[in-house]
């Protein structure tokens, strides 16, 4: 017969170890990355089913990048690899994604008449808003980091 595990013991490794921690899923960054991944995947599926299949590569790349960053932030790779400034990379990804989604959504809605293209365009506009919110929040983090770095540097140089 199996003995019950003590209350403070860690769960056994398995599929649950692949899931991100609950704290990250409840955070604003986790929710934004999850929304970006889901929206990008939905848009990708809509473009595959539409006449505007030539636009399917942008949502696929954005889905993969958002998924990578989701698991990188969830597993705290950003704290382990200090050589890459993660907020800057995330900011650039969000800015380019918002611009690209806005452009292809306008083209999909105005040029193609099938329902899947229209749905992809509508979801693309929603994704544009989500990516814009994410790059606004990331931009504020970048500005505070740069202000901290610029205010510390001149004083250190003057005293030397």
TrEMBL record:
Main location (coarse class): membrane
Alphabetical keyword list: Membrane, Transmembrane, Transmembrane helix
InterPro entries: Marvel, MARVEL-CKLF_proteins
Domain MARVEL: 24-143
Sequence intervals crossing the membrane: 32-50, 56-74, 86-108, 120-139
Any one Gene Ontology cellular component term annotated for this protein: membrane
Protein localization: Membrane
Protein name, UniProt field: CKLF3 protein
Organism encoding this protein: Columbina picui
Lineage: Eukaryota, Metazoa, Chordata, Craniata, Vertebrata
Gene (UniProt): Cmtm3
